[in-house]
Amino acid sequence: MTERLFGTNGVRGIINVDMTSDLALQMGKAIGTVMGGTVAIATDTRISADMIKTAVSSGIMSVGVNVLDLGVLPTPAIQYYVKTHDNVKGGVMITASHNPPQFNGIKCISSDGTEASREEEEQVEAKYSERIPCAPWNLIGDMYRIGGAGEEYVDAVISRVDADAIKKAELKVCLDCANGAAYETSPLLLKKLNVRAITINCNPQGEFPGHPSEPTEENLRDLISLTRATRSDLGIAHDGDADRCVFITDGGKFVSGDKSLALISKYVLSEKKGIVVTPVSSSSLVEEVVRESGGEIRYTAVGSPVVARKMIETGAVFGGEENGGLIFPEQQYCRDGAMTIAKMLECIVRDGPLKGQISDLPVYHTVKTKVECPDDMKKHVLEYLAGSNDGTRIDSTDGLKIIFDDGWVLARPSGTEPIFRIYSESKDEEAAKSRAHRYEALVMEYLNH
Predict the structure, then answer these.
(1) Residue 4 included in any domain
(2) Burial category of 293 from C-beta neighbours within 10 Å (exposed 0-12, middle 13-18, buried 19 and up)
(3) For 228-283, how does the pLDDT look when each residue is reduced to its tens digit (9 = 90+)?
(4) Which of 48, 62, 97, 283 is catalytic?
(5) Cβ–Cβ contacts within 10 Å for residue 71, how many?
(6) Is residue 97 domain-resident?
(7) Which stretch of 162-176, 356-370, 384-398 has the lowest confidence by average pLDDT?
(8) Residue 77 belongs to some domain of the structure
(9) Same domain assignment for residues 160 and 309
(10) Partner of 239 at 20 to 30 A CA spacing, among 75, 214, 304, 365?
């Protein structure tokens, strides 16, 4: 039986526990064999990056495939490089995104720059389980170190927005890169757009000493204070590999990913009507704003590759997730943190301060919680919840979404961690809280019985 290695977002694990150099070497051999041609590789700033990159690269070269080492880059930057260089057959990003610093991961990229499909991942998994023959000594692959990929990516982003209007506005922002992969590219983007950037956590420190790399309100307290104190037009924060971006208003208020997704959906639809794609975990706020703006909504399972492929299938004008991962098809079909920054700047220049735009959105209350849950128990927990629900309708697109007359609850197992996530939403704050607590208690009740 083929071993399941890939979760929602690549292969991840704790360094020298689950994610070892032996695993990375065999993964490299499998990836090189399946991709069958030159592979680009990049990393975020984690202290284990070189160890995993070297092992994966060795595996790729051992089966006769060349490696292009792009250095430290945001995930969307290597995706853009793969997409725009015809000699590259695929890519590998060494990252564990928002996970704690003891984790790292291996994410595969298709030849068109999208995250590898489940079918492609299954091919790699199947090959991983085999004894993979190496190439003869005189046919092994070479490694080439490539510079400039970050600036290529930044220039492409700038070409997709009204750069002149942004430059003339002379905006001031605060930027927090979580000491992650965007520590060079996002400051460069802002400089080229004539935006004054006050930066924190913009050093390549892979232990993430500034704060955990997940850009939550709690983790961004310094950025919130700095944005307020400096009276900046905007606060900007990335996760570790910078495929996501969240914002702080000009008044120093944290903006949830749902709200920025809704706001930019509205902005995109004002210029071009069409379909917006988002997972079932996104707030109903997004659907309400999309419909009011003359667009159509399409729901998918959670996971940016699923959203991106549904966007390609439907010809969508925009898409994204509730965690700050937005996808702009005119640039590329993947979550793109720098593109999100540039589009939000354009949105502010045209439609006014973020604080005012956010205050005009419909109000929904969303409560998010999680429960530790062993991977082998996740299926049983879902079955238990299905038999215990009291909603009016069930949506099983991803996990279990229980629809009520005045809101919904989504219970779904994480694809990257041994946890169960619970989202509860309603326009009634107390209803959202009570349902979140109820379903959290049900999960714990089952696990402890």
Answers:
(1) no
(2) middle
(3) 999 999 999 999 999 999 999 999 999 999 999 999 999 999 999 999 999 999 99
(4) 97
(5) 17
(6) yes
(7) 384-398
(8) yes
(9) yes
(10) 365
